[in-house]
Specification:
The protein is α+β, with helices and mostly antiparallel strands and 231 residues long. It has two domains: 70 residues, Glutaredoxin (3-Layer(aba) Sandwich); 146 residues, Glutathione S-transferase Yfyf (Class Pi), Chain A, domain 2. Helix content is 59%, strand content 6%. The chain is built from ten helices and four strands, in the order E-H-E-H-E-E-H-H-H-H-H-H-H-H. A hairpin with a 2-residue loop joins strand 3 and strand 4. Bound molecules: glutathione (GSH). The site of glutathione has 13 residues, from helix 1 and helix 3.
Length: 231
């Protein structure tokens, strides 16, 4: 059996994505959640991002590559359908969640209404001597990325309204299905679930949490993913 260790704190949506995917597949793994910023660069020198996971000591970076590896080491309960067209749709929705929904959530983490909470939440990841400077460090190295990407430049009410419209799109896509692509969850469910977790937990982005809570179809779906991954 492959020995798997997943590295990264569950404050990251991508860490939650791989943890829930592994739980759904009933994979056994170790989870190393307590990493400092320098640890991240040591463990993940190619991207400098978490999650990373060790498979029998071989390091794999990026939540998408890690999840693919899960299906290789254990094909049961596949994260992507065997049917090519369905698989393409699942990967596209996963990618939309990782590369687009993520930025709505990040944009809201760094608006002036929420940035102080984001800094407070992340201060613990800095080495002790740097913690007094957590505000400028995180605003400069992470917060400014939302401006570079573009969503960080949108007026607050526009960003919230656009997020609401994307959530309405998700409600439409879900329809009356149990999960986004039928009776079983797939990698797209876990990717969106991860973004929702970061957006809702720990009270950092109450605006994100409110937009989800206004849509009972999505809160119901979230509960079903949680049930499918509880061990
Ligand atoms: N595409 C990557 C994204 C990973 C990512 O952006 N991780 C963030 C945490 S949410 C990170 O490691 N940030 C640390 C940094 O930017 O220095 C994946 O799917 O794993």
């Amino acid at each position: 059996m492959t020995k798997i260790t997943i590295y990264g704190p569950p404050v990251s949506p991508f860490v939650v994505k791989v943890l829930t995917a592994a739980d759904y597949k009933r994979l056994s793994y170790e989870h190393e959640a307590n990493l400092s910023v320098p640890d991240v660069y040591k463990l993940s020198p190619i991207t400098g991002r978490i999650p990373v996971a060790a498979f029998d000591g071989e390091m794999v970076f990026d939540s998408t590559f890690i999840s693919r590896r899960f299906d290789e080491v254990q094909p049961e309960k596949p994260l992507v359908s065997q049917e090519p067209k369905l698989a393409a749709q699942q990967r596209m929705l996963e990618d939309w969640s990782d590369e687009s929904l993520y930025w709505y959530m990040m944009g809201l983490r760094w608006v002036k209404e929420n940035a102080h909470r984001t800094v407070r939440q992340n201060r613990k990841f800095l080495p002790l001597p740097l913690r007094p400077f957590a505000g400028p460090i995180f605003r400069n190295f992470i917060g400014r990325r939302t401006r570079a990407q573009g969503f960080g430049r949108l007026p607050y009410d526009v960003l919230v309204a656009e997020l609401g419209e994307r959530l309405d799109d998700l409600v439409q896509m879900l329809g009356n299905q149990t999960f986004f692509f039928g009776n079983d969850p797939c990698i797209a469910d876990f990717a969106i679930y991860g973004q929702f977790s970061t957006g809702i937990e720990e009270g950092v982005t109450p605006d994100f949490a409110e937009q989800v809570s206004l849509r009972p179809e999505l809160t119901g779906w979230r509960e079903r993913v949680s049930e499918a991954t509880t061990r």
